[in-house]
Amino acid sequence: xxxxxxxxxxxxxxxxxxxxxxxxxxxxxxxxxxxxxxxxxxxxxxxxxxxxxxxxxxxxxxxxxxxxxxxxxxxxxxxxxxxxxxxxxxxxxxxxxxxxxxxxxxxxxxxxxxxxxxxxxxxxxxxxxxxxxxxxxxxxxxxxxxxxxxxxxxxxxxxxxxxxxxxxxxxxxxxxxxxxxxxxxxxxxxxxxxxxxxxxxxxxx
Length: 205
Fold this sequence. Notes:
This protein has six helices and nine strands, in the order H-H-E-H-E-H-E-E-H-E-E-E-H-E-E. The protein has helices spanning 4-13, 27-36, 54-60, 73-83, 122-135, 165-172; strands spanning 43-47, 65-70, 90-94, 107-113, 136-147, 154-155, 158-159, 176-187, 193-203. The strands form two sheets. It has a seven-stranded mixed beta sheet, with helices on both faces. Strands 6-7 form a two-stranded antiparallel ribbon. It is globular, with a radius of gyration of 16 Å. One of its GO terms (biological process) is methylation.
C-alpha cells in the first residue's frame, strides 16, 4: 500500500468534494448493501471509507453498527466533522488495511469502493484477502468496487489494477460465492467519466 503520507497530503490539501472519487451519494454501494437484506444492527465496515458519504446514508437508513476504516486521519476527520454529533455512533479506525488485525468474524458486511484496486503488489493483496477471510463471518457479505477493465490506469497519481468481474472474483477464491455484479459510470467533479465494477459475494461456511 502507498505511504500514509500520500493520503494525508491529499485530504489536507484538497477539499473532500474535489477529489476524483467523490460521490454525493454512494448509490451503487447502497443498492448492493440493501440487496443483502442484512439486519439494521448487523456489523458493517467501510474499508477506505474516509471522507465518503456512505456512512451518512447508512446512518440515515438506521444501520447502527458501523465501522469506517481509512489510512488517513485527515480523511476520517472530514467525515467526523460533517456528521457532527452523529459521529459518536460510528467506530472510526485509522489503519492500513494490509496491516490491521481484526477480531475473527467481526463483520456481517465488508464494503470497499476503490481501495483494492490500489493494491498492485501481490503480497499486499494477499494480506488484504486474509483480513477479509478472518473478519467476515460465515454467511456474511463482501461488496468490492474497483476500476473496470476500461477504467483509468492511474488514480491520485498512483498506478492501479483494473478488473473484470471474473478476475476480481478470482482474487477472493473458493471461500466466497459470487452473487452478482454491477457496473457504474462514475462522473468525477471534473466532468470526466470513470468506469467502475462491483462484485457482490457471500462468504461460505
